[in-house]
From TrEMBL:
Residues 1-22 are annotated as: Disordered. PROSITE patterns: N6_MTASE (PS00092). InterPro entries: DNA_methylase_N6_adenine_CS, RNA_MeTrfase_RsmD, SAM-dependent_MTases_sf. GO terms for molecular function: 16S rRNA (guanine(966)-N(2))-methyltransferase activity; nucleic acid binding. The keyword Translocase does not apply. This is 16S rRNA (Guanine(966)-N(2))-methyltransferase RsmD. The gene is rsmD. Its EC number is 2.1.1.171. Keywords: Methyltransferase, Transferase. It is an enzyme of class 2 (transferase).
Length: 140
């Protein structure tokens, strides 16, 4: 698993242990397709990565020019991977990791008045994430 393009292009990301059941990283090819569609939209934008897993989606966005990212995951292994990958790529100053369930993180971000231009949500199970994001007006 690698960063596909941008300032960190080609840098390898740490992934979950083979025995991990909670983390399903977004494949390089899928990320490449998503970001090819987004094009230059990322320049300086705020990104929210729900169910961040390895942090690959947000870190790809930062590599391609996003200004900041908030990563949310309640799984301890995922949190460790997000920190490890963020530090390895040197994006620590641009990343905030919220180590809590998504519903609590969304409520906290709403109370803080946070807004994001791009929100990724790749939950490991069916969740009402889209409705909650819209209800809290987190989309810029």
């Amino acid at each position: 698993m690698r960063i596909v393009a941008g300032t960190a292009k080609g840098r390898a990301l740490a992934g979950p242990k083979p025995t991990s059941r909670h983390i399903r990283p977004t494949a390089d090819r899928v990320r490449e397709t998503i970001f090819n569609i987004l094009g230059q939209f990322l320049d300086g934008q705020g990104v929210l990565d729900l169910y961040a897993g390895t942090g690959a989606l947000a870190l790809e966005a930062l590599s391609r020019g996003a200004g900041r990212a908030v990563l949310v995951d309640q799984d301890r292994e995922a949190q460790a991977l997000c920190r490890q990958n963020t530090d390895f790529l040197g994006f620590g100053a641009q990343v905030e990791l919220l180590a809590q369930p998504v519903d609590r993180a969304l409520a906290a971000l709403g109370r803080r008045g946070e807004r994001f231009e791009l929100i990724f949500a790749d939950p490991p199970y069916a969740a009402r994430v889209v409705e909650t994001v819209l209800e809290l007006s987190l989309m810029h």
